[in-house]
Amino acid sequence: MTSPFHPTNWSQACASWIHEIQIAFDPPTPVELGKGGLLRLMRWSTPRVATLVLLSFTLHCTRPPVSIVSTRTARDGRASSDAQPYIEEGIASWYGGNDDGFAGRPTASGEIFDPEQYTCAHRTLPLGTFVEVENLDNHKRTVLRVNDRGPFIKNRVLDLSKRGAQELGFLGQGTSRIRLRSVDAMGLPTTLDLGADQSDPYVVQVASLSDAKNIDSLTRELENTFGVVTLQSAITRRGLSVKRVRVGSYSTRQDAEQAAEKIAKLLKDRGVEPFITRQR
């Protein structure tokens, strides 16, 4: 059933009203302008003026409804028409092969890693973030969800699941140049508040070590200058058990970057290249 507020019904109602009003008027007697006085002039002009007013009202009633354009808002509730999605380019790798041992292990989010799911690992993006990833060599695209941390290898920005690498067509070659941008669950570009999750602060990962003496020595040295040092247990692709030596707990990336620069200067002669990641 058509709504009584539908424009078609408005048009019919207005047309009926015009018809009824026109019936109520007596046919005007022809009047020669300038004769008959003011009263006869008013009788001659009133029906015509009324008709013009009603015609204008009818056009207004039948005008198509105004469409409302949705505007994406920032997390603080303010309109953000010029905000841009998070975009990053670099080298991506993949994990979840038959011999790397990652399948079935817990990810940083607590999920069990399934190489056949559309997921990925990123060092700093909030867990649960959706990203559209494009292979810059063949322009294939897919949408993945961040549920893990990594890659912990120099000059790489993203670790894709086996399924993700398959979709982007670089499963056989191991790595590829990619561009990622933040999207929503429907795959539409969206802004990203990198500091929204204060429960998962930034940390500076200094090294991954397996030798207990080296771990203790580096930990004491860093504690003297930077305070809190944490150790995170991990297993490498080769199955080696290591400790990730990490410094600090920073609410902003800027603070973490400043700490990373200081650590790099302190350890510059040891080949250490600290990078920023998240606590989990």
From TrEMBL:
Q: Carries keyword Protein biosynthesis?
A: no
What EC number(s) does its UniProt record assign?
Answer: 4.2.2.-
- Which keywords annotate this record? Cell wall biogenesis/degradation, Lyase, Signal
Q: Which domain of life is it from?
A: Bacteria
Q: Which CDD domains match?
A: DPBB_RlpA-like
Q: Which GO terms describe its biological process?
A: cell wall organization; peptidoglycan metabolic process
Q: Does the keyword Oxidoreductase apply?
A: no
Q: Where is the signal peptide?
A: none
Q: What does this protein do?
A: Lytic transglycosylase with a strong preference for naked glycan strands that lack stem peptides.
Name the family the entry cites. Answer: Belongs to the RlpA family.
Supply the name of the protein: Probable endolytic peptidoglycan transglycosylase RlpA
Give the organism, scientific name. Candidatus Geothrix skivensis
The major lineage groups are:
Bacteria, Pseudomonadati, Acidobacteriota, Holophagae, Holophagales
